[in-house]
Amino acid sequence: MLSNNRVELTLIEKNYLTPRSIELTYRGEDPICYIPGQFFSIEFTYKGDTKARSYSVANGELPNPDNRLLSFVITLVPDGVASDYFAAAELGSTVAVHGPFGNLILPKASPKRFIFIATGAGVTPFRSMLPELRSRISESPGLEVIVIQGVRNRDELLYADEFSELTQLTAHAKFMACYSREEGEVLSDNEKSGYVSDLYMDLHANPDQDMVYLCGHPDMIDQAVSYFDQQGFKPGNLKREKYQFSLL
Q: Whole-structure pTM over 0.90, yes or no?
């Protein structure tokens, strides 16, 4: 059972989800415990130096024998140390992880409406929550779930099919994709041009019945927190996690 100890994992699968995003799946020798929404610090060696980066668990519905697998999504940044390392990582290579960490998790009791807002790979912790969200929708058909994913263009969407499947379970679930640089494309009803702020401001979020989760680019987080603070949200119903980028 993994807590905050250093544990070695072996890379067993590597897939490009988009031109700029890689999903890496690692296997441990012992069961790995975490709560959907949490993250791990990954320690790796790059050109003789030990580096560390934090990534949210992206595990979804994939088979996970004995809870020994962890999946992460890496966004490739030009000249980034972590990007170079993970892009070149071969199956069978190993890393060490510390964790789990973070409080971006679902509460024991559901609010009337969950609002999940992400940019880029910030959507991965929400993907890990999907099995639990499906279960809660089954138990409480009136539960509302809104997921907003902001990316530059359609090719950068992550797990859009899985979030869209959630909307087929209930009329109270909605998935919206927001493109900041998509031009000349015909957009469907669940696609919009612009930024995530253009969408969440139209939700008329109510701190008495809604719970908001934010994950992704620091600028988006800061802007959204300022907005929801003004609406009366507090730390108990406004959860956030910034994805910091480092080239070193």
A: yes
